[in-house]
Amino acid sequence: MxxxxxxxxxxxxNETGAGAARGHCxxxxxxxxxxxxxxxxxxxxxxxxxxxxxxQAGSRFHKNISYRPASDVLNGVSxxxxxxxxxxxxxxxxxxxxxxxxxxxxAPYAGKLKLDFASFRPLEERSRDLPLHKRNDLLHVDAFPTxxxxxxxxxxxxxxxxxAAGRVWNVGEAFDVVVPRMARTSTxxxxxxxxxxxxxxxxxxxxxxxxxxxxxxxxxxLYLHDWFKENSAYQENGPKEEVVFPPGCAWMVFTxxxxxxxLSGQYxxxxxxxxxxxxxxxxxxxxxxxxxxxxKSSLE
Length: 300
Description:
alpha+beta, eight-stranded mixed beta sheet
């Protein structure tokens, strides 16, 4: 029987100060999920109620409604929707509040966080009919095909606004535990691009073309994202624990460093940040450093 994993760490409401902030960063970077029984930032009930009233219908919508705070752009909702302006305002306000809270709560990262996308996920996760590599109910680590991090870590803050049902995840062992063990028993062989292809992508990206300028690290992480989902033995027998995030709670986790799977749940929001390597308090646990130790080569 798979060993139990003690991944969830509940954060008391009175934990403040520099020492606490560094400890929170350390816990996250070592593969813990920080859990808040209630949302630790301003999130008006009126905004929550409005989001719960939204219904995505038909092929005009994506699986998520996404918000790009850097450019203040809302995607995933029909341009002629009568609720579009209100939805845009709610997502903008949510993103700003999460930014403010995260910079204070994780003080060692303040001024170094790179703001990424926010999203609203109104669909039920259970029993969704998706291709293997897009399934959320299989354990995986996150990697972005179109937004390379080049070694930066993917930090995500989630809120479950469903008033009646929890959001259920499986959570696996931390990256710096599970991946070295996998590397000892399996062949991890990403198809790295050659120098010429990499140079071409860099030139195209610098010219403004929609070509992702991926490092060898990004290619390895995209490979691992798919490899985890394809590995039926790991999915069935790998150490994991089921975690239920109850209504009205929030949590944060480095999703590039914690294999996770969304088994069920509806109506969640999240804000993503990229944390550069130089901001980390435990850089040796970062996936970049773990993979470089395995390959004995630079992946930057």
